[in-house]
Write a structure and sequence with these properties.
It is a single chain. The protein is mainly alpha-helical. 64% of the residues lie in helices and 0% in strands. The protein has helices at 3-16, 21-33, 37-50, 55-67, 71-84, 91-101, 105-120, 130-143, 147-157, 164-180, 195-204.
Length: 230
């Protein structure tokens, strides 16, 4: 793919109509494929400024912040995407995961639980991350001695290849806790995905084997939190 040509075409479109959000968004996507996340953040920000209630722009902005290791800003974006109406049904699970990354247990439990409930009621289609939601909730309920709820999510983990081993370990620990009446939560398996899960998540977050553009674009203008239109 000729990324330089794509960027040039999008820039020509912006010259013709600076308010064409699709051109700003297109350049952002191209820089994202090139893994130039500071640049794609700038262009996604401009696209979101032109389409302030379009959840696709807001989620893209949040993903860029995550790749730039700014999860607190990403969280703000995913919350906003849910508030305006998530067109792609991905903001909720992204929000739950970023809450987990921020060690916001209350937020992670809230959004993982809501995601699972909506999948169970067929309001959302289950994505690959549903197993992560069940695993997090199983550990949370086990830590808090809510064994019945922990057991439900532990058995759900056993239904997925990525979390099957973790699920079996959790089921055994829950059974031991019930039988002894004094079982202690073992954090050994907490938040340690199996090798299969690591490989799958790495592949899902990595674009195809694209070649990096040889030309170096000028640096994007400086931006701050106040640049976001929400």
């Amino acid at each position: 793919k000729n990324y330089n040509m794509a960027i040039e075409c999008y820039r020509n479109a912006i010259d013709v109509n600076p308010r064409d959000y699709r051109a700003w968004y297109g350049i952002g996507q191209t820089y994202e494929l090139l893994k130039m996340h500071t640049y794609c953040l700038y262009y996604y920000m401009e696209a979101q400024r032109l389409r302030p209630t379009d959840s696709r722009m807001i989620v893209a902005l949040g993903e860029s912040y995550e790749k730039l290791h700014q999860p607190a800003k990403a969280k703000k974006c995913y919350m906003r995407a849910l508030n305006v109406g998530d067109q792609e049904d991905i903001a909720m699970i992204r929000l739950a995961k970023v809450c987990e990354k921020l060690h916001d247990e209350e937020g992670a439990v809230r959004w993982y639980s809501k995601y699972v409930d909506m999948v169970n009621s067929a309001e959302l289609e289950a994505g690959d991350d549903i197993c992560l939601a069940h695993r997090y909730l199983a550990h949370y309920y086990l830590r808090n001695d809510r064994l019945s709820e922990a057991d439900v999510h532990a058995h759900k983990c056993c239904e997925f290849k990525e979390t099957k081993n973790d699920g079996k370990a959790l089921v055994r620990q829950i059974a031991a806790h019930r039988n002894s009446g004094s079982g202690v939560y073992n954090p050994r398996f907490a938040h340690k995905p199996s090798n299969n899960l690591r490989v799958k998540l790495a592949m899902s977050n990595t674009p195809g084997s694209q070649k990096r553009s040889r030309s170096t674009p000028p640096p994007p203008p400086e931006h701050s939190d106040n640049d976001m239109s929400f």
